[in-house]
Amino acid sequence: MEDRRTFLGLAAAALLPAGLDAQAAGQPSGARGPVELARHALTGPLEGFEAVLLQLSPAPRGSRAAGPGHRHPGPVLGYVAEGQLLFGTNHEPDQTVPAGGTFFEPTGALHTTFASASPDSPARAIVFMIVPKGAPLTAPA
What we know:
By secondary structure, the protein is mostly beta strands. It contains one helix and ten strands; from the N terminus they run αββββββββββ. Helix content is about 10%, strand content about 45%.
């Protein structure tokens, strides 16, 4: 199991281009906006959909914006590449996902928590989504 986690961590790090540390405007201190790493149109039975790969660097716990959350138009599969991530959907208890761990969000789930689990340390996740072609990646709750 450890060899698989090491491989996944190295593979995720290899996908990341250099220089992704620019702060996104309007984000809480410590947060960086999503960085789209790849987007590909799908064919066959999934024609009309796109596969999207993102890097997310959420703000530390306590600095996340309060609000009703948001939804995604397709399933979300994430891999925590660095730090620990606080993750929650549908107002269920938050989960702490460690580096090397994964999380899943079904289509249309209410995404209620997404932050670094530490107030001082950053977290970084690689997220794979399937979305309708041209659709925004998030929608208000």
